[in-house]
Amino acid sequence: MAVDAKQFEAMIAAYTAAWNSGDPAGVADHYAPGRGITINRGEQQFGREAMLGMAGGFMASFPDLKLSCDFFRLAGDRAVFGWTLEGHHAETRNHVKASGWEEWELDDDCRVTNSLGWFDAVDYDRQVAGG
């Protein structure tokens, strides 16, 4: 079933705002119960507790985290959300700016049922270390 475009645009704005709020629950609320994300072919993180941990981990690592939406596309119940994360790493204090995207499957309520997230982890780690 196709997701309503206006509902999707509202979801994108709310999802971006949730990342910028410092509240991991706001991010987790955008995922259907028991669903989640796999980042860079890593371990699958499914369920509310995993989503809280994933979002909370990034928020703790970057107390001044700013996430921006670079682009998005919707096709039926599939979507792509392109983003840029920027902030200072909590431990190293180094400025990090990383871009990536998430490939989403969406349910009828415009909640994510599956996400594949991608970013350049080597460049991210280099920036965290100060390189």
In short:
34% of the residues lie in helices and 40% in strands.
Overview of the structural elements:
There is one protein chain. The chain is α+β, with helices and mostly antiparallel strands. It has a single domain, classed as Nuclear Transport Factor 2, Chain: A (Roll). The chain is 34% helix and 40% strand. It contains four helices and six strands, in the order ααββαββββα. A hairpin with a 6-residue loop joins strand 4 and strand 5.
Describe the SSE topology.
Blueprint: H1 5-21, H2 24-28, E1 31-39, E2 44-46, H3 48-61, E3 66-75, E4 78-88, E5 95-106, E6 112-119, H4 121-129
Parallel strand pairs: 1-6
Antiparallel strand pairs: 1-2, 3-4, 4-5, 5-6
The count of β-strands is 6
Structural domain count = 1
Uncertain stretches of 5 or more adjacent residues: none
Order of helices and strands: HHEEHEEEEH
Would you tell me which CATH topology applies?
Nuclear Transport Factor 2, Chain: A
Distance between the termini: 46 Å
Defining key terms:
4 helices; Nuclear Transport Factor 2, Chain: A; six-stranded mixed sheet; 34% helix; 131 residues; globular; alpha+beta
